[in-house]
Amino acid sequence: MSMRRRILSLFVAAATVATAGALHAVPAASGAAPAPPPAPGDHRHHGPGQETSGRALPTSAEALPAGFREQTVLTGLSQPMNIEFAADGRVFVAEKAGRIKVFDSIADTTPTIYADLSTNVHNQNDRGLLGLALHPDFPAVPDVFVLYTYDAPPGQSAPVWNDNCTSVGGANGGRCVVTGRLSKLTGGTEQVLIHDWCQQYPSHSIGDLHFGADGMLYLSSGDGASYSATDYGQLGNPINPCADPPGGTMAPPGAEGGALRSQDVRTLADPTSLDGALLRLDPATGAAAAGNPLGASADANARRIVAYGLRNPYRFAIRPGTSEVWLGDVGWNTWEEINRVTNPAAGPTNFGWPCFEGTARQGGYDGANLTMCESLYTSGGQTAPFYAYNHNATVVTGETCPSGGSSVSGAAFYPATGGTYPAAYRGALFFADYTRDCIWAMTPASPGGVPVAANRQTFVAPAANPVDLAIGPGGDLYYADAAGTIRRIRYFDGNQPPTAVVSASPTTGTAPLTVTFNGTGSSDPDPADQGLLRFAWDFTDDGTVDATTPTATYTYPAGGPYTARLTVTDTLGASDTRTVAISSGNTAPTPVIDTPPGTLTFAVGDSIGFTGRATDAQQGTIPASGLRWRLLQHHCFTSDNCHVHVVQEWNGVASGTFLAPDHEYPSYLELELTATDAGGLSVTTTRRLNPKTVNLTFVTSPPGLQVTVGSTARTTPFTLTVIQGSANTASAVTPQGQYDFTRWSDNGAQTHVITAPATATTYTATYTKRRLAQSAITVRSYDSQETVDENAPAVRVLDGNPATFWHTEWGTVTTPHPHEIVLDLGASRSVTDLYYLPRQNASNGRIAAYEVYVSTDGTTWGTAVATGTFPNTTAEQTVSFAAKTGRYVRLRALSEVQGRAWTSVAELNVSVG
């Protein structure tokens, strides 16, 4: 849900679509152009109890390869997250808020509630009921497994937050700590198998559940860390509420909290976290399955882990006939990954997060100089993704799927044998991206083989908010649309059914209500059927055909609501059906958002109050029970590529408050008020709230070095626009070549969080060239033509004490000659600078004119690498020159201040590359 940040927000909220197709009707939506996201104050009218998300839906079968059609099979759902098909034909659907609905079949329109876990489930941002699995022998073994975010911190009982974290600074304030729970439901009774997964931030929660061919239960989970900042456990108040090792306040290099929980299994000396990992479990107990790679560990959690180093493995699939696990891991701002665990019994496999994203080092965590990552960079051992795609690149060249943002959100394997799809799809991996609204197929080289990363094709473009993929009865691909539907992709080898498109106007009004219907947008992909479609209108959905023309009118008496149905049939009898709701004698209510005003702008953490009301021509004032509020976060990657997720919901209230959440820019908030009247008509109005922004400029001294802000290292100077009050992690990358970080202008640590101020601010990271440790240097020789003061030996130039010094014997000579001192660096090095500190508190003996030489053997010096004159000062002097490789460095004093024929040096050092 960072970013993204990505965020990687996977959830948009809505309920159902306004029209639906029958089982023999394959298109997903009517042919009318999809509505754009509503402008401020825009009103959206829906049928009884129906809402839309405002996101575009597929409008044509042309979005799929030839012969494939999309069909909406189940509607009326609230944020469906997971679909499971039982052997007895039943369909189980997990809704994000905690309800599991059961349909007798995909033709069922009246589901029952199998279990309602909403009291326990924390449903906010990316948190909720996300994982669902049926026992392989279901229903003979009537066990249903669920994985959800538990609405309480460690050691407490739900509900604690009641899906509202306003009292502790909002869900992204670092104080709304929750946990995760794996449970087994038998007849609706919950048996907790694992309660763990401390999560400080509202994304990267728990993930997916699947049974393997070995009968073991596989489970994925996110890192529970911030999606917007480099998080190693230093964030929030109090800091480290999850008690991550080493405990207490977190700081580099030893911190192991935040996203580093994903690497925790590497440090078995302390308790192991389950965050950011893939588990293989005994479904009877939730304990580690026999044969796990760390089965001999004394730590019960370590024994459960078969793969780790994952950020947000939201969905995964197991390749049929094998034990291979293929995980879709949602990335930060650069890469989405598909990771392959070839053998869960070997390893465990480390996919590298947060030290790596894609195949490269992750800039934000690399810049923080954390031991957990630095040791991995040195030792290696991470496994590269099977396939990774960049957020700014398309998955398939020339496709219509947008780029600029991503969140891989579904995975399913087509059977290696059987099914109705063409042979090329046998064994193919289907994977989806919620942000891009697309589904792709990765096909094998030959039917039933291992998918080939290069064999990618666009399969559904656009798809409707896909958050889960599954292969259902008959071998068709199904996907859950987070906006409230379940959709099926069918293949027709031969005659293609038509696409029914219906429009009706008006759909509400006083009785009698005359409605004009139009089906002329209907079409058929087969040339032989074009212009020969047959139309059948049933205006009251009672099974009677009322008209057979492409257009028709019908007058409705008071009552209803009514359902009008259009069936379009081609010359070979294939048909498609669409419906539309009509309400006669009832007009839609009018909702009004009174506050906040549309002119309001916000900073992160601002408390924003909202009030609203609704009136209805038939009902008068709509009571508060008929009002529903939602706060939506829009994160935009380009002007036409934004994804939306729900921050918070309020039902049955006329007013409330919320804290403006943190998010990277560009983004904005949308406050949505839906009013529903007694007749079931609903209308939604929205108000856009824009953030207050500020420019943060980052520079380095010297210029041109790199600084990491958030997830990305950039060459300075650069300027970022962020939201006021947002948390921005800044790391001065060190070392860089011969430069080491010294200080930030705001006195922050090398890696620290900058809370964006209200005014534009420049942050400077100061670097110094790296000096060779004085303990690594010896004085090889010094002036042999002068006696030396026995009380001032030459080694004093290396003692680190500017109050001590070396000098030649006191006195003057008639004919001065050069004095010199030679340093032995102990090994050949690239030397770029010499640092000379004159003797303090005296004017005699300071070097004026000088020469500097570098030699490989201390005998042959060649030409001077630098010459010049030092000013008459007690300050340290730097002599810079082009890098030269050598073991010995000589400083020659050609003349001294005031003409004295002796030389003194307090400190002498060099910088090396």
From TrEMBL:
<dbReference type="InterPro" id="IPR011041">
    <property type="entry name" value="Quinoprot_gluc/sorb_DH_b-prop"/>
</dbReference>
<dbReference type="GO" id="GO:0005975">
    <property type="term" value="P:carbohydrate metabolic process"/>
</dbReference>
<dbReference type="InterPro" id="IPR006311">
    <property type="entry name" value="TAT_signal"/>
</dbReference>
<dbReference type="InterPro" id="IPR022409">
    <property type="entry name" value="PKD/Chitinase_dom"/>
</dbReference>
<feature type="region of interest" description="Disordered">
    <location>
        <begin position="28"/>
        <end position="56"/>
    </location>
</feature>
<dbReference type="Pfam" id="PF07995">
    <property type="entry name" value="GSDH"/>
</dbReference>
<feature type="domain" description="F5/8 type C">
    <location>
        <begin position="760"/>
        <end position="913"/>
    </location>
</feature>
<dbReference type="InterPro" id="IPR008979">
    <property type="entry name" value="Galactose-bd-like_sf"/>
</dbReference>
<dbReference type="InterPro" id="IPR000601">
    <property type="entry name" value="PKD_dom"/>
</dbReference>
<dbReference type="InterPro" id="IPR012938">
    <property type="entry name" value="Glc/Sorbosone_DH"/>
</dbReference>
<dbReference type="Pfam" id="PF00754">
    <property type="entry name" value="F5_F8_type_C"/>
</dbReference>
<feature type="domain" description="PKD">
    <location>
        <begin position="498"/>
        <end position="582"/>
    </location>
</feature>
<keyword id="KW-0732">Signal</keyword>
<protein>
    <submittedName>
        <fullName>Glucose/arabinose dehydrogenase</fullName>
    </submittedName>
</protein>
<dbReference type="Pfam" id="PF18911">
    <property type="entry name" value="PKD_4"/>
</dbReference>
<dbReference type="InterPro" id="IPR035986">
    <property type="entry name" value="PKD_dom_sf"/>
</dbReference>
<dbReference type="InterPro" id="IPR011042">
    <property type="entry name" value="6-blade_b-propeller_TolB-like"/>
</dbReference>
<feature type="signal peptide">
    <location>
        <begin position="1"/>
        <end position="25"/>
    </location>
</feature>
<dbReference type="InterPro" id="IPR000421">
    <property type="entry name" value="FA58C"/>
</dbReference>
<dbReference type="InterPro" id="IPR013783">
    <property type="entry name" value="Ig-like_fold"/>
</dbReference>
